[in-house]
Design brief:
hydrolase; TIM Barrel; single chain; 9 helices; 267 residues; alpha/beta; 15% strand; TatD related DNase; eight-stranded parallel sheet
Length: 267
Amino acid sequence: MQYIDPHIHMVSRTTDDYERMARMGCVAVSEPAFWAGFDRGSVDGFRDYFRQLTEFEPKRAGWSGLAHFTWLCINAKEAENVELSREVIKMIPEFIDRTGVLGIGEIGLNKNTKNEATIFSEHLELASKIDELILIHTPHLQDKYKGTRMIIDMLKEHSELDPGTVCVDHVEEHTVGLARKNGFWCGMTLYPTTKCTPARAADIIERWGDDRIMVNSAGDWGPSNPLAVPEFIQEMKKRGHSDAKIKKVVYDNPLEFFSQCKRFKFK
């Protein structure tokens, strides 16, 4: 079955991962701007990173026949440096109209601090001003519910934002309802330990339905599995779900969400 991985950090993966994903049916990936494994010290580091995301990674994905799309921001892990964050946000319009850029993301909270909230809000202001899609990172483990509540409260303060243009990612059993009930899209990340397993994601689909929800591997520097979406497909098949229902979650829904961006070109 063909699928799209709507959240994966391919700069941290090998070219072999692209090949393996293609063999399993992946036809496109969406790569949010992320942490480099260390905190960058200057806006020029981010400028080079944005060039990597918009110039090189699409070529590398293309070697395996995959389409590559990306998002731009300074991530929550580095948002404690407010001065640097503002320089990066100011730079985003230089890159936003490049081919394959889907919007602003992944923005959000990491430790739910005041500085993170400030920079999250300033990202939202930029996205609203230039009319872009938004991809949101919610915190890990013990900070997740509180952080998700804070994020949704801040989103609701920006009443000009259409919830249908926002995807709240890394949701699980305790937070999916917060996003769904407020009209946002949801992403479920299939991590080996810290987020959802394929079985838990299937449970959530069975409880909440398959509208405005998708699954991703969020493969990155740490323990993660770039083939997590095919594992979810197999879990859904074992439970007797139809190919049409599975395809909606792993292909049709990401396609529908991304198609709101005028730069999204995919065949």
